[in-house]
Amino acid sequence: MVKLLSQAGAEVMFTYRSSGEAAVSLERECAPLGPLVRAVPCNHAVEDEIRRFRDVIAEEWDDRLDYVVNNVGITADNPMFRMTSAQWHSVLNTNLTSIFTMTQGLIRVLSAAQGSVVNMTSVSGLTGAAGQVNYSAAKAGIIGLTKAMAKETAGLGVRVNAIAPGYVATDMFGQMPEAKQKRAQQAVPMRRLGQPAEAAAAAAFLLSDAASYITGHVLVVDGGLTLS
């Protein structure tokens, strides 16, 4: 997503939690494209770190901001009757509360630019996933947050949409047991995983002027997984 937006001419500031080497590598990879691409460490489960990141944006870009993509997610799976309070709260704080904290603090500068927000949810927020009551609840919450926020900010000229990916070839998917990965892929009517670039293209569309009359929408990018 960072590369695609940079290729489109956008300056991009992105966060990372622990993959410092990968973040620096991505900065270097994008450098020849021209626009500024900067990595900033941020644990989205900690509100103070999100506020510090917002301060970096204000200082670096002088309160000028056109787009926000809330693309953060962790899992801590367990059946409901074995799920710990720590597993529940860590996923809700990182996946849902962080989006509220980040976006609430940036609405003023976004409205000045008539900007746009894209929140990454999941098909798990639409259908639920066994063993993931925390993840499913957080992703369903993102859908409700997106729709409510879109209604509140439309009058300010800010559009807010969401993307609900299905199975995408990411590090998170790669952590699943191999047998579960095979079953997941077979469940997709298109019989393949989505690629990160395909989810990124959906985000780029929703941020662009081509989507200027779209707000409060959840764009499903799942290869047909949730077709009834």
Spell out the key features of this protein.
single chain, 228 residues, Rossmann fold, four-stranded parallel β-sheet, globular, NAD(P)-bd_dom_sf
Largest sheet: 4 strands, parallel
What overall geometry do the principal axes of the alpha carbons give?
A: globular
Q: State the fourth-level CATH superfamily of the domain at 65-221.
A: NAD(P)-binding Rossmann-like Domain
Query: Level of helix content?
Result: 40-55%
Structural class: alpha/beta
Q: End-to-end span in angstroms? A: 29 Å
Say what the CATH topology of the domain at 65-221 is: Rossmann fold
* Residue runs with pLDDT of under 50 for 5 or more positions: none
CATH architecture of the domain at 65-221: 3-Layer(aba) Sandwich
Radius of gyration: 17 Å
- Tell me the series of helices and strands, N- to C-terminal: HEHEHEHHEHHEHHHE
Strand order of the largest sheet: 3-4-5-6
Strand runs, count: 6
Portion of residues in beta strands equals 5-15%
Summed up, the helix count is 10
CATH class of the domain at 65-221: Alpha Beta
Mean pLDDT: 94
Describe the structure.
The chain has 228 residues and is of the alpha/beta class. The protein has a domain at 65-221: NAD(P)-binding Rossmann-like Domain (Rossmann fold, 3-Layer(aba) Sandwich), CATH 3.40.50. It is built from 10 helices and 6 strands. The chain has a 4-stranded parallel β-sheet, sandwiched between helices. A two-stranded parallel sheet has the order 1-2. α4 packs parallel to α7 (133-153). The radius of gyration is 17 Å and the shape is globular. The two termini are 29 Å apart. The model has no long low-confidence stretch (mean pLDDT 94). Keywords: Oxidoreductase. GO terms for molecular function: oxidoreductase activity. This is 3-oxoacyl-ACP reductase. InterPro entries: NAD(P)-bd_dom_sf, Sc_DH/Rdtase_CS, SDR, SDR_fam.
